[in-house]
Task: inverse folding
């Protein structure tokens, strides 16, 4: 394995690389800073004051949690997925300039005019194009890697390329197993003890989670991003870009859609605190609910449009199957969304939307609300037929615990 880069050696690397020299034109005045917002890879911003790029290097473990071992070839996988995503949704993907296989790194477009969506949502910002952009990104990337579009042999070839077993096992454990058992990695606010005990004792619900885990393991429906949350989206007023597909593999489409919508719900719950005024909170929450609705309706309409215009009509001649397919994706969306909400509330890896609420009572109230949305989504999942039902379940959910005010 190659040495971990530092702010010094990353400059030597750029100066010694043909691609690096070509990118910058002149390597005069090159400087580097480490970006430490992520948990997994080393990331450096390199600039000469006129041009810049990011170097993202994979180590054999997570840099922040060294106990998490991860294969270094995930950098090559991320490169290949970014290429595919760029083919189908270039305006919502980040450019990758080159991949260095020996050093397990990618040189990536620096989106320094964007911020992480999660931060924007916590600040209560509205992005008028967001739902349409994410809906389109998901429809384009998921449809074009499904059996509805790809010839069977090509699809199977891609499934082999993108099995990603070690990264998937991280998700299997952290999303589907640990939060639903008494596992030492879990952590939650003791105020939620009763609610968590009820969840763990609910056999019907745990069985539903098993069925989702089974689908996650065995339903190679399309090439998922597999870490599609508001921390993997960079935004500004006009643009939306999805980054960081290192967990990608072939799985159920509803997992990507559900993870994204779940993170909107986690933010919705967090606005218990982030919006100081009741009227502001109500307005922002209704914007978030509208995001859930519009992201889905855009995704669904675009997916159906692609099926109609580019789908393999010989393999899938019956148009009435389309509505059934999308209905099943909606049900998976609710189920996988619920597991994402639960794991971000009581599992190992939490989200800033909830964790950064300083007042213990308010945080517990927000987390309690999130858990109740998850339970409602999981309970209704087998009979869902319409996105409005999902929105309404979210809107009518209430926390078991009152906030401090
Ligand atoms: N192309 C980019 N342009 C600007 N900033 C970026 C870009 N890619 C990543 N970042 C910044 O670096 C952070 C970490 O990026 P990324 O998520 O790709 O890393 P990671 O090591 O996979 O971490 P994790 O999976 O824990 O989020 C992002 O949250 C963002 O702040
Ligand atoms: Mg990552």
Result:
């Amino acid at each position: 394995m190659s040495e971990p880069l530092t702010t010094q050696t990353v400059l030597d690397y750029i100066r010694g690389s043909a691609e690096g020299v070509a990118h910058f034109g002149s390597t005069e005045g090159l400087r580097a800073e480490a970006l430490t917002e992520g948990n997994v890879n080393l990331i450096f911003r390199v600039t000469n004051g006129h041009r810049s790029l990011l170097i993202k290097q994979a180590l054999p473990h997570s840099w922040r949690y060294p106990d998490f071992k991860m294969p270094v070839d995930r950098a090559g996988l991320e490169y290949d997925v970014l290429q595919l995503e760029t083919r189908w949704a270039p305006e919502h993907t980040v450019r990758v300039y080159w991949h260095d296989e020996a050093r397990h790194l990618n040189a990536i477009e620096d989106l320094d005019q964007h911020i992480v969506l999660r931060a924007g949502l916590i600040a209560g910002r509205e992005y008028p194009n967001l739902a349409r952009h994410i809906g389109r990104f998901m429809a384009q990337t998921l449809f074009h890697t499904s059996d509805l579009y790809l010839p069977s042999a090509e699809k199977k070839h891609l499934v082999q390329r993108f099995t990603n077993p070690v990264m998937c096992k991280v998700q299997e454990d952290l999303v589907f197993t640990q939060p639903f058992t008494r596992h030492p990695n879990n952590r939650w606010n003791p105020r939620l003890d009763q609610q968590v005990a009820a969840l763990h004792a609910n056999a019907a619900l745990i069985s539903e989670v098993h069925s989702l885990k089974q689908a996650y393991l065995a339903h190679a429906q399309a090439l998922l991003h597999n870490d599609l949350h508001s921390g993997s989206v960079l935004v500004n007023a006009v643009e939306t870009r999805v980054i960081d597909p290192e967990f990608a593999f072939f799985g159920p489409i509803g997992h990507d859609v559900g993870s994204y919508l779940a993170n909107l719900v986690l933010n919705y719950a967090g606005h218990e605190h982030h919006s100081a005024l009741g009227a502001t909170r109500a307005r922002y929450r209704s914007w978030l609910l509208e995001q859930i609705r519009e992201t889905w309706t855009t995704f669904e309409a675009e997916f159906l449009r692609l099926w109609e215009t580019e789908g393999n009509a010989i393999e899938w001649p019956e148009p009435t199957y389309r509505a059934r397919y999308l209905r099943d994706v909606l049900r998976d969306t609710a189920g996988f969304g619920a597991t994402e909400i639960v794991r971000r509330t009581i599992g190992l890896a939490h989200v800033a939307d909830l964790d950064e609420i300083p007042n213990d009572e308010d945080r517990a109230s927000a987390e309690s609300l999130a858990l109740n949305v998850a339970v409602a989504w999981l309970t209704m999942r087998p009979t869902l037929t319409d996105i409005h039902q999902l929105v309404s379940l979210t809107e009518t959910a209430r926390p078991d615990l009152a906030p401090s005010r």
Observations:
- The chain has two domains: 9-108, 115-396.
- Residues 9-108 form a domain with the Phosphorylase Kinase; domain 1 fold (CATH 3.30.200.20).
